[in-house]
Amino acid sequence: SDCCVDASWAGVGLTGALREALAVETAVVATAVAGNPELVRHEETGLLVPPHDVPALAAAMARMAEDRALRETTARAGRKLVGERFSTTVKLEAIEALYRRLAAERA
Questions:
Q1: What is the DSSP string of 4-60?
Q2: What is the pTM of this model?
Q3: pLDDT of 12 strictly over 80
């Protein structure tokens, strides 16, 4: 698809669908709820709109549909962000570092 849209009005953290879309370099439009702004940095890795704002959501979707350069630029930046901050490798390294720190504090 050319764009992934998450129009949630309430969130439960980082949205898997957005993270996965960005990981495969797909442009995203999302509402600014919960963890979405961590993944979707407005105008950088996608477009963010306020929750419950149907006109803003429609405008952002139309803008992504019409602007190929915006889709490509934000999708590339999103893939880079996901790789640097949200990849499995990064998560495992962070967990390992936490365990090492906790073990060292206990010793």
A1: EEE--SS--SS-HHHHHHHHTT-EEEEES-TTHHHH--BTTTBEEE-TT-HHHHHHH
A2: 0.83
A3: no
